[in-house]
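Sat 14:20. Reprocessing the chain from the morning session after the first attempt stalled halfway. Input below, unchanged.
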Amino acid sequence: MKHEIREILYMHVQASERFVISNGMSFWEFANSLEKPLQHLLLLKHDYGDTQFNLNVALDYIPSEGVAKFIKQDVGAYGEFCWIDFQEEDSLDELSGMELAELLYLGHMKHHLKQPFFSKLHNQFVYLSHDDGWFSKIYYRSLPMYYKMLGSLISLKLEGLKIDRTWFGLRKKRDLPIIPMEVLEKLSAMLSEGVVFSLKHALETRVKMEIPIWVVGDFTNMDDMLDHYYELQKQEPDAYITFLWKTKEWSIVLNS
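Finished this time. Tokens:
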């Protein structure tokens, strides 16, 4: 199936609680931007039919061999879509009633009772979303995982949107390397406030590509976020992510 590439990306990082709220990132984009493939997935909210069922937690799950197929599904049709990854199938049988209660609360309220990283599951993420690509709240076991994912994600989205043409009118794709984590970490202060990366307004010349960034603030209502962003985009961006074609290097340029 064809996956829509959204032209803006909102990210708000809550570093102390290790979660990130976003708009503009689909499940397919997230899964394909991770450094390592996803393992087994315990489904907290979904509408997918090809699953297995665990009696101890009375929840559906997808074994690792079924994850690649699942990633290709139109999860946007599910509405609510929440899951947590885990390493070993037997670990589901070891979860206590209290741990199950915490999982159900995560899926229902999209918030944690306590840090949602379970020693029995060895999970790296908790993925909580509705209307795929519209709103997601993702917990990361470590923030470097997030920055590595983000570097791949932006390159992936740009490759889906940016196609050059040669002098003969033939389509030519220019490969973009992943943005290094060390570069994106320079945006950590802005990300903690909430930013929009505008792929739509990315400017490409023979020398470089520039992706504008606006600081928009902390939002959970994405309609409000977009309204505020559309006002701010009339002003100069707060920063740019810049890629030089000659040196193949990414950098951050802050507007004073």
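The helical segments are 27-33, 64-71, 97-109, 143-161, 181-184, 188-191, 222-232.
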